Amino acid sequence: MTPNLLILGGTMEATALARAVAEAGIAGVVSFAGRVERPVRQPLPQRVGGFGGAGGLAEYLRAEKITHVVDATHPFAAQMSANAISACSMAEVPLIALTRAPWEAQPGDNWTHVPDISGAVAALNRPALRVMLAVGRMHLADFAPNPQHFYLLRLVDPPKAALPLPRTQVLVSRGPFTLADDQALMEAHDIDLVVSKNAGGTGAYAKIEAARTLGLPVIMIDRPAIPNRPEAHEVAQVLAWLDHSASFATERGV
User: What is the tens place of the pLDDT at every residue in 6-15?
Assistant: First the structure.
């Protein structure tokens, strides 16, 4: 069976996988949710936008004759990941997730774990601080109940409308970032506290290292629960899975 791959993308890992797939001569498409205006250009064909839930994704898989799906979305894209699991079950298409291992606290880290965005908002119900808020633009309005803080925001795209937080500074930038740069950034803005999702990986880890170096506390938002699925942490593991499952299907005469 000749593979025809769908990569659910939007991460550095998805781009690395797309590059490896293209170099191997494997057919595929990379799908973006459309939350970023300028997605990184991929070496495979791209599509942008949702599928219309799990049912819509299952129909897409059938219509496009997709043979394999790799969920390489952000670890916090829980709904998309759940839809992918359901859709692949409905369409009888094998699925694997290319995930980042979560960050683990190291000596010198001062983390307060919260289960979700609401927990982070509640943890900021305190006197005014200077906060580096690293949660992405989709959740900024959730922090409106705490307008007393100054918020340093680093966004991939510039905001299109007035921000829901009265005291902010926006930096438009795309990672990966370095420890030296993030330490200098926090010092320049007199940051007291960092709020971060536990995204894992290396591209956004510099702010966690910088907070450790500067002795700053971090409110760490734990990852959402996702139903069980096969997972890999390396591109090579996904390619091996793809080769194995394609060979298995050929042996069965599929």
Answer: 999 988 899 9
